[in-house]
């Protein structure tokens, strides 16, 4: 990721504004992929904060036209949600940060 990660700062500030721990979304960069991981902490059902964070991601990334993928990861042998991941190619994530830096919204 770039030196100044505008999107990570934006998402963490939005979480804080919605009374969600800014530590809940985890940002990981592996080779050419940037992943945002949100852990589900409920034993039964889905943590509402997971959906709120996903909604914040959709609301902030969608209008900018940046491509991303979402994946739900379940615990093995069960119907319990472990975590939700949102992945970007590194190039798309760099474009996202550049748009946020310059204020360019198409």
Please explain how this structure is put together.
By secondary structure, this protein is α+β, with helices and mostly antiparallel strands. Helix content is 37%, strand content 26%. It is built from three helices and four strands, in the order αββαββα. It has helices spanning 6-17, 48-61, 90-102; strands at residues 25-30, 33-39, 69-74, 81-89. A four-stranded antiparallel β-sheet has the order 1-2-4-3. A hairpin with a 2-residue loop joins β1 and β2 (33-39). The two termini are 23 Å apart.
Descriptive key words:
alpha+beta; 106 residues; 26% strand; 3 helices
Sequence stretches where pLDDT stays below 50 over 5 or more residues: none
- Nearest-integer average pLDDT: 89
**C-alpha Rg (nearest Å):** 14 Å
DSSP strand count = 4
Helix share of residues? Answer: 25-40%
Q: How do the strands line up in the largest sheet?
A: 1-2-4-3
Percent of residues in β-strands: 25-35%
Main sheet: strands, sense, barrel? 4 strands, antiparallel
Number of helices: 3
Distance between the termini: 23 Å
Shape: globular
The ordered string of helix (H) and strand (E) elements is HEEHEEH
Indicate the structural class: alpha+beta
